C-alpha cells in the first residue's frame, strides 16, 4: 500500500492474542502491514501510552470482549475504531458507542474492499457506508441545534429530535424510521415530552415546538 508520514497502526482487539483470526491474517497480506493483536487488559495502558491508535473489532466477538471489562474506553477520542464482520445495520446509539468510528464493514464485504478501506483509514480518511453517514449527520445536526430549546425545559437531544419530527407532521412510524428506533421507543419519548411540556397530545407538542424552537436551516 502507499504509505505516508501519517501512517498509523491498526490493532485488532480480541480476547486471545494467540488465537487464529483468518480475516485478520488475510488483511495483513492484502495491505502488507502487520496488525498486532491486543487484549482488553492492555487497553487502558494503550490509552495512556499510545494515542491515535486504531482499534479493529470483530462485531461478532464484541459482546464477549465488552463483558471482560466494564469501562471499555472505546469512546475516548484517542482511539479510532474500525468495526468488521457486521451482519445487520446498527442503531445510532450503537454507532455512537464505538466512539471515533472511522470504518464499518459488513460480513458480505470481500477482503479487497476491507483492505482498500483500511488503507484509507490508516492514512487518515474515513470509510463509512452512506446510510451510516446519514445516521450520524442526522444525530449531530440535532445535537448542535439542542441549544435552541428554552433553558427552562430540560429536553434531551432525542426528545428534541422527536419534537422536530412532530413539527413536520411525521407519524410514529416515520419518526421511528428516520431515527432508527422502534415505535415503542418513540411512544415512550413522546410521553416524556408531553409531561415536560405540560401538554396533552402531539398536536399541542408540535404547536409548542413551532413557537419555541428555531427551524433547521
TrEMBL record:
<dbReference type="InterPro" id="IPR016032">
    <property type="entry name" value="Sig_transdc_resp-reg_C-effctor"/>
</dbReference>
<keyword id="KW-0805">Transcription regulation</keyword>
<dbReference type="InterPro" id="IPR049151">
    <property type="entry name" value="CsgD-like_REC"/>
</dbReference>
<feature type="domain" description="HTH luxR-type">
    <location>
        <begin position="148"/>
        <end position="213"/>
    </location>
</feature>
<keyword id="KW-0238">DNA-binding</keyword>
<dbReference type="InterPro" id="IPR036388">
    <property type="entry name" value="WH-like_DNA-bd_sf"/>
</dbReference>
<keyword id="KW-0804">Transcription</keyword>
<dbReference type="InterPro" id="IPR000792">
    <property type="entry name" value="Tscrpt_reg_LuxR_C"/>
</dbReference>
<dbReference type="Pfam" id="PF00196">
    <property type="entry name" value="GerE"/>
</dbReference>
<protein>
    <submittedName>
        <fullName>DNA-binding response regulator</fullName>
    </submittedName>
</protein>
<dbReference type="GO" id="GO:0006355">
    <property type="term" value="P:regulation of DNA-templated transcription"/>
</dbReference>
<dbReference type="GO" id="GO:0003677">
    <property type="term" value="F:DNA binding"/>
</dbReference>
<dbReference type="Pfam" id="PF21155">
    <property type="entry name" value="VpsT-like_REC"/>
</dbReference>
